[in-house]
Amino acid sequence: MRLPDSVTGSFLVVLGAAAAYGGWILPPVPGQPVGPNVFPLVIGSGLALCGLAIVFGIGHSFEEEEELIPLEDGQAAAAPPPQGKLEGKLYGLRALLPPALLLFYVVAADRLGFIITAAIMVYVTSTALGAKWKLALPLAALSPFAIHLIFGKLLRVPLPAGLLPTPW
Amino acid sequence: MLKTLIEAFALISTWEVIIAMFAASVYGLVIGSLPGLSATMATALLVPVTFYLSPIAAIATIVAASSMAIFSGDIPGALLRIPGTPASAAYADEAYAMTRKGQAELALGAGVWFSAVGGIAGVLSLMILAPPLAEIALSFSTFEYFWLALLGLMCATLVARSSPVKAIAGMFLGLLVSCIGIENPGGVPRFTFGLTDLFGGIEPIPALVGVFAVAQVMRAMLTPEPPPLPRRKFGSIMAGQWRLTKLYHWQMTRGNIVGIIIGVLPGAGADMAAWVSYAMSKRFSKEPEKFGTGHVEGLVEAGASNNASIASGWVPSLLFGIPGDTIAAIAIGVLYMKGLNPGPTLFTEKASSMYAIYLMFIIANIMMIPLGIAMIRVAAYILLAPRSAIMPVIMLCCAVGSFAIGNNMFGVVTVAAFGVIGYVMEANGYPVAAMVLGIVMGTMVEQAFVTSLIKSDGSILPFFERPVAAILAAMAIGALLWPVMVWVWRKMKPVQTAVATSR
């Protein structure tokens, strides 16, 4: 997901300009010199300026490569990437799986219920991270109940029962 | 004062607080020790749980979990050369070199002992610094608050290990996010696009959970799994620590002081404290050549420093609502939620709660020693847990936790969206911490800005008229212009050199 600075910078210019315009068209408060429009105007302009600076490479020389962040250094980095066959353009899209599963939760939780939805989420994430079915299956079967016990029973978060209500 | 102290004791000596603190400590130790799960993430995932606790118990969980997680990040750092949290990254190589020399006990013991010492030094700084600063802060008007908040935002961008322009852009993004909703001077829907869910604005907590937890799970999808820990039996963990304390007392003190100063600076947290202290330790050491070969001196200084910064990070948070680091940013959210609104009046009106916070910090750091030793002994088993078992559970916690915040599914959508935003930002060198600060402080900055403008009838001169405001303004503007000045200076330099050589 590494994009050229010109792309991210241009995006910020457009976003900043849109924010400033959005602020500009907000109605002022009668009899008051400043209203809800001022702050978005200032921020939008600032963001657009930053975007321009990034496009022109200002401040780029300050950038350091991220040093030693967890999971990506040392022996871990030396290990061969898993599933070499899948390497390629589509491999990067795997990263979108967690947010996609969260949206699946939003859509499905009310109909299927917490336990079933959570079990599907856990199973998919676990296998995507390389777990064998021997680990993923029991994890998907047990962890939704454990989470439901903590959040639903002890903390009284109203989790949808759906098709499979919990025994408690 | 004694009466307040007794009241504070009464506040924390309830079963709820004791159990909450113990459970949060164990939780913090476990999460911190798992590579890839930072102390900030541990704290963010804890927030939904704090909803259901009393104010003091809620703060207790945050205090205990964050302190423990910062220490336990040292454990996989020393044993696997993979720091559990970014705050341990500065000296993970050194600790691992000690393990290879057969000194794992000494390295881990130094981690526990000097973290606890540093943590207690941080609390003392909080106790000593905060009340007099609160006295001064009581005379602050919205002008000073505006500049202070801006300075806080700028500090966060200055210390980021990336391009300052990108950090400032990240901060603006956060401020823009805070604009969403109807909580603005006109009470009109702003950037809501007709969606009623956006009327209440974007809550900072789901945004934080998204950028720190979901983004981490996203990264895990693409990075290889760390190697399993080899089994080993540990000897005495604390043996030799007293000798180290006597030998390196000055390094320890310097680490504490640096940690406290960095903690107080808004935006610069434990990670920065550890890096700076480790570098200082090497720079001023009598035996700099030993660094990198498994030398304990840097561990003493940096280990003390990162824990000292945790407590001192609460100074600006409690006084002004300006978070010292990302953990403090989460703590501010909890403080507001629990009616302990940050500000100088907190020290006068809710003095017993303040003392309770101090006491909890001290207790957490004392508890760190026995619990930390126990954790080191069971680390081998916890580190055996594969990532493919931990990450799915973390994600489930993100979904349920963000739902619990407002009891609506919009929280889950927010978490997913901010996961993507955080992931893309991090991948492209935009520091997410700057954006988080923007989101947390946006409403405060706007309120101070607009109230000041209304008071001054639209004129900007009064922003510079009061002496303290003028000083803060100069600092904030200096921080804002600094990257531009350095850029201009660097552009000029080759020209000057070229002119000099042509003569």
TrEMBL record, chain A:
The chain crosses the membrane at residues 6-26, 38-58, 102-123, 135-155. Residues 9-160 form the DUF1468 domain. InterPro entries: DUF1468 (IPR009936). It holds the Pfam family TctB. Keywords: Membrane, Transmembrane, Transmembrane helix. This is Tripartite tricarboxylate transporter TctB family protein. The lineage of its organism: Bacteria, Pseudomonadati, Pseudomonadota, Alphaproteobacteria, Hyphomicrobiales.
Automatic annotation (TrEMBL), chain B:
The keyword Transmembrane applies. Keywords: Membrane, Transmembrane, Transmembrane helix. Residues 18-437 form the DUF112 domain. It comes from the Bacteria. The chain crosses the membrane at residues 9-31, 51-71, 106-130, 136-160, 167-184, 204-222, 257-278, 314-336, 357-384, 390-423, 469-489. This is C4-dicarboxylate ABC transporter permease.
